[in-house]
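Today's session is about reading a structure prediction critically. Students often jump straight to the picture, but the first step is always the sequence itself: look for stretches that repeat, for charged clusters, for runs of hydrophobic residues. Only then move on to the predicted structure, which in these notes is written as discrete structure tokens rather than atom positions. Here is the chain we will use throughout the hour.
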Amino acid sequence: GLLGDEAVPNKALHTQLTLGCGATFKGGYHMLNASFMIQFQKDCPLDNKEHGPMLVYSEKEMQYAAWDDVGKSFRMRYWNMHAAMVYEFGSSWDLERVNGSVALAWALEGHPAYLQAELRRMPIGHILEFKPKEMCHAMLDVAHGQERTRKAMKMAAAIVGKEEMLKIDECVRKKKVPEPFHELGRANARLAGYVQELYGRFPEHQVERDKFKDSDKEVEKKTKPQAVVIGADGCRPDFMADLLARHPKLAVPPGHVHHFSHLYRGLGASVVGGAAIRGYHEMLTGDNLKKNASLVLEVSPSYMDTHWFPNLPKQLASFAPDVKLLAVVCDPAHRILMQYETDLALAHKNDSCADISDPLTPIWTEKARALEFALIEDGVGNFEELADAIYDFSTKQLYRVPLARRCSSNSCHYHKYYLTGLYQQHLMRVLHWFPPHHIMVVDLAGLISMDPWPIVSKVLSFLGLDPGLYPQDTLQMLEQHQDIAPSVQRGLDLLHQLYINDNELLACTLRQEFPLHWQGQDAYVEPLAEVCARLAQEGKLARASQP
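Below is the predicted structure for this chain, in token form.
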């Protein structure tokens, strides 16, 4: 059969044979967990006599490589994932050919992603100090190279999956690699050269092997955040931060920090060493912050995305147990609409390095375009189709399995758009590690549909600041959404149905009724007391309240 005769006597479990990296058996190809595969190879050597044993890196090898070269560890993981696709679904076990195929996939997807991650890890001030236009143009060259390469390969998907990997492998087999791959390789090399120069200029941010020095421990003490806007992404958390930043005793670092989510995800603290703390410290204590501020408010909307970062609340609580958390929420259906429109506008933004206030703009543009390609591949070309796709995924079990296999990145419309709006579930995960009096939830509608001062005043008191020092004459309301087209409204109505239960649980958890008004146009709003009594009788409220 598919697993071969050697699998059964060695007690190979099917769950172990369907995770991770590729392995080959006498009966055919199948997927294996890397650690299990190495042990399996020892017990059942199945070396190909012509090309030798299959190459796979163990978790121990990858972790050890990260001590000295994070890029090498990143590439080893990329190899395991993408070589597996060729081993399992391809027609050859030629290590040289597989290496060539993975090298092309790395140039198209892996290497640009790694370089972008390294740039995002560097404080933006340093990038602005060191050849920002040169970096921006190098990034644009990479983005354009990726686009030309995908077009030459006739790839609709932005992510290199099985079908894309097999297309690349076929080019290697025929020894007909399109020229755009070579152009992209040169563009990657130019960007890599810039990144190397940048980290050479600011070596204190290099990931290092040594443990914290005494000076790093002092920096760690000073770096603990005092307050963080944790989300929700798409509910204008920046608007809340901008209003609060007008208080003379409050400072807001520019941009989003995302320290515990995007920047050091997948790297253990022992590997990162003092680089993480020093970079974080610079982000929170930049030269452009108010010198007389008594409180620094960090904005990191991804901290509420616990479906992506389940361990983040624990990590944040361990590092800064006294931090105050501010969650700005809004109608989750409208949140999807706002985020979708923002992503779409960014995807169609003209490429330019004329404005270098954010030299990383090409990264965000490329990610938005990759998302648009992924949505189009899923048959999503407008908001109503996005709502239909989310509804289908949530309600049709036959659709759930094939889509779930593709939802392994932020490009998945269900994970990116829908799960973020399940505020009740995210807040319960946060409350598991933080006491309730350290968290405040704010409804965006209260800031844009009426006088925002009562909410701003309440938030300032929550943060321990004197509302009397706030210049109220500078307050402004956020421009509300314009008229909604009938097709968009149909999409909103569909999404409202999906969120009803979670909105009710959120209202009862907060003991506030505003989530009950997120039910769509002309919907009957049941009194809060009746909703909570009904949920308690059904046993839902008790279960939802458990950490």
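Discussion point for the tutorial: The radius of gyration is 25 Å.
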